[in-house]
Amino acid sequence: MSSSAAVRATAAIVIDAVRRHGRSLDVALDKGRLELDVKDQALLAELSYGTLRHYRSLEWLLGRLLSKPMPKKESRAEALLLLALYEQWQMRTPSHAAVSEAVNAMRMLKRPALARLANAILRRFGREKMALLAALSDQSVAVTTSHPDWLVSRIQNDWPEYAQHILEANNERAPMWLRVNQHRGAKDAYQQRLAAAGIQATPHDAAPDALMLDKPVGVDALPGFSSGDVSVQDLSPQRVVALCQVRSGMRVLDACCAPGGKTAHLLESVGGEADLVAVELDENRMVRVAETLARLNLPAKLVVGNAAKPADWWDGELFDVVLVDAPCTATGVIRRHPDIKSLRRAKDVPNLASRQLEMLNELAALVRPGGCLVYATCSVLKAENHEVVAEFIRQNEVFSPANELRIDNNNGLMAVDSLGYQCFPANDGGDGFFLSRLEKDSAG
């Protein structure tokens, strides 16, 4: 049996682990990679990411090809059929090749009785593809953009002007952004180093340290990565530094700091000359933060603890700046994590909003009079962003928002008001991301 069939069988198992068992795509892929040679792992990722990215559209197409739904016990076989449709539709794999490999993979999944079904419906899709895709285009927005109904409704209600853009951008591949450590060399000089290495990059006016690569590369290909000259970080979270306005000697708290990108950027902005405390609940994720800071040779006090319970770890000394990058639905980073469409539920939104408000209320007491609290999420939902900030201000009158003119408007792909900045995903920009600067009265 070919290794190509093994990749497809493994991808079907990965997709099923996400859809049926609720595992994250990253975890399922890590397990799947163990079954394959290195040369096959890129195809495994493409099939898994792509099928989950377009899952609902593929599910609709499969429903038109089947005379009756697949039994629930055949969820892996169904995932295999969906990824084979994805190949023919989005990857433009020749029909005969996609059909042949899917039939072989079905046998590898120990479903030989379904091999004839796979052969029949996949060949039919090859014959009727144009008509089926035309019919797909007439379906609801949720089906054509492969999003759950509840999320489409939320986004349309929150952002009627931007909704279609957000839903379409969620199905694009995110660009690779770099953050240049300009204490080690100017951005334009680093751009020239990239060019000399055969890597093309474009700067962005909205973030002074940011470069977008024309094509993603491995970090080992980046000049000076191991020595701390550059880091990988999306454009949108790079905007945090502009709101925090850290100066040398300030005392700074980065709550929920993993994986450490914003922690490092805050320190880089002042050449490491800040008293920064970084808190993270997950000990394993804190290891990543420590590794990042060690690579960049940046100092910070790392605390494993619950940011929502500062009494367990706070030393009693107030902070000039508190950054709260709160746990959220991650609906702004779907293009990087398409499994979010499958794993998130409508009920998650109010539960997370409650936790976010609790965290802000607890950490507000750690801000010195005249200091600031910066709230950030990678969500595009107002219930987690504007509504949380509005309720926090209502409960904490010593804080007021200060947001209107502090950062660039991202070429129109950002909604700005007094409560914060809502960035929307863009194929030449950053991820969906929300930020708000909340200043504490000097009389505190």
Write up this protein.
- This protein has 444 residues and is an alpha/beta fold.
- It has helices spanning 3-19, 25-33, 41-53, 55-65, 75-91, 95-108, 115-136, 141-144, 149-158, 163-169, 187-196, 240-244, 261-269, 283-296, 340-343, 348-364, 386-395, and strands spanning 177-180, 201-203, 210-213, 230-232, 251-255, 275-280, 301-304, 319-325, 367-377, 399-401, 414-417, 420-423, 433-440.
- It is built from 17 helices and 13 strands.
- The strands form 2 sheets. Strands 5, 6, 7, 8, 9, 10, 11, 12 and 13 form a 9-stranded mixed β-sheet that branches. It has a 4-stranded antiparallel β-sheet with strand order 2-3-1-4, covered by helices on one side.
- The protein starts with a helix and ends with a strand.
- The relative contact order is 0.10.
- The mean pLDDT is 95.
SS strand fraction: 5-15%
| End-to-end gap | 71 Å
Gyration radius (Cα, Å) is 24 Å
Portion of residues in helices?
40-55%
What is the structural class? alpha/beta
Order of helices and strands: HHHHHHHHHHEHEEEHEHEHEEHHEHEEEE
**What is the mean predicted local confidence, pLDDT?**
95
**Helix segment count?**
17
Major sheet, described briefly? 9 strands, mixed
* Tally of DSSP β-strands: 13
Low-pLDDT segments, ≥5 res: none
Name the shape in a single word. Answer: globular
